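Model: You mentioned two targets. I'll fold them one after the other.
Researcher: Yes, keep them separate.
Model: Target one:
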Amino acid sequence: MLEERAYWLAWSQINGIGPILLQRLQQHFDTLAEAWTAKAGDLAQVEGFGKQTVETTLQAREKINPEQFIEKHLIKNPYFWTPADPDYPRLLLEIPSPPPVLYYRGNVDRKENQGITPTVAMVGTRSPSEYGRRWTRKISMALAKSGFTVVSGLANGIDTEAHIGCLEAGGRTFAVMGTGVDIVYPQQNERLCDRILQQGLAISEYPAGTQPNKTNFPRRNRIIAGLSRATIVIEAPHKSGALITAYQANDFCRDVYVLTARLDDERSFGCLELLSKGAHPILPSSDRLLSEERLLEMLGAMPKLDTAEQLSLFPPNPTVEKQVPPLPPEWAKVLSAIESGPNSFDVIVEVSGLAAGTVSSILLQLELLGLVSQLPGMRYQRC
């Protein structure tokens, strides 16, 4: 594992080799360590490796010793995950372009990384109205009190309000940054970032010392969406970065929710656009007042924190529990692997100890029997 970790880091230093090409390399060679020693002809067989990319790779490999590089890198970047690490966030592994290196600072909770503790993103404009600020605080506080981890981007406006509301409720929050985790941007959020490090994490795909760059912030939005089972957009004008996050969340098969928008407010035009394309509106409760309890009901946050039941974004089926018929041993292994609640496909494969193709076939049979159901993002739960 340590060796493979070094090669994830080494490959990430080569210009033109991004997350998608790295996944193709791993699939083709089984390990990135094996890919590192591959000849030019073998590299050329990987989709996306044209002549120039192969030449760039060969030249870069001559200058990098992976084992030595990781030792030197750890001096300034002591905390990071790669997909070879067991603590790499599982939800990120489900997206098409997971960061090959994910740096972090703060307080790690492995239940979040394993997808057990539900995570929800809150994003929006940097110039919110009083209405947007107020409801961001109310919603983030409600989510925190119900056991959700709130994910946002530490920007001015809605992001700041989301982090603060969560922290004031005693919850955990992730700040996904477009800089190195040691560089706080905007600077006025330095004290807020210090609080986040006590009750959550600062996360970035950029190494220590990376300064603000306008191209980095749109890229980090996929990480906000990828870390979260659902994304909530509070206020967002046209061309807002929050819309990028929302569309990426939709591409990742994650739910998108939108705060009820005002028709005459430019800060809500992006929200109206999302609603027209199928996002879930955060609707009033039965007394015609917008309520955070209504949102929690929509998200399916059923149990309280003081219960032993696992939190889930997805409401349980209101049906009588099915009697499980006698199953073949391998089928029983797969079913028991999802006994604790919605689990990703990768988790089921790992827990069951079976091949991915076998698990996929068995899950289909269990669905036909009505014993499991598939959720967005290749997650499965018992019926």
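Model: Target two:
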Amino acid sequence: MKTSLALIGFMGAGKTAVGKALARKLGREFIELDSLIEQLAGKTIPFIFQQDGEIAFREFEIEAVRQVSPREGVVIACGGGVVLNQINIDRLRNKSVIIYLTASPKVILKRVSAGSTERPLLKVTNPALTIQKLLEFRQPFYERAADITIDTSTLNIDSVVKQIIARITKSEGSN
């Protein structure tokens, strides 16, 4: 039986904020993959991208997923690109229900612009266009990986958490 929850989706969809609230509500440990990647690399994600490039970052990501995927009863917030490597999804799927948090490009741009974190993939002249292109490219990967999909565009964190719990409870009841 799958006892962990893995949140996937594009940057700004709410994976970390929702993940923390969900873990608190369920009394579970919260694991943020990006933080683990930074620990493994010994540097920040923007620094990994800057010094070593995206391929090196993805290698750290695969290792981080390898480490957390066997864990049971945890809530994992994955990075936006975790779905690009099938090995990550295969590993997560063993113990986790995969929840795809989605949001409209306009909402994503607003959220990531308001945030204080550096987004290496958005260090471009037209972030709105980059978001649109990345979303179009990644959407089939997210959809293929997802057990549950929730659009967070118009929802607050608590509403998303309630929906996730309701959907998980419902799917456990039907198994």
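Researcher: Noted. Anything on target two?
Model: The mean pLDDT is 92.
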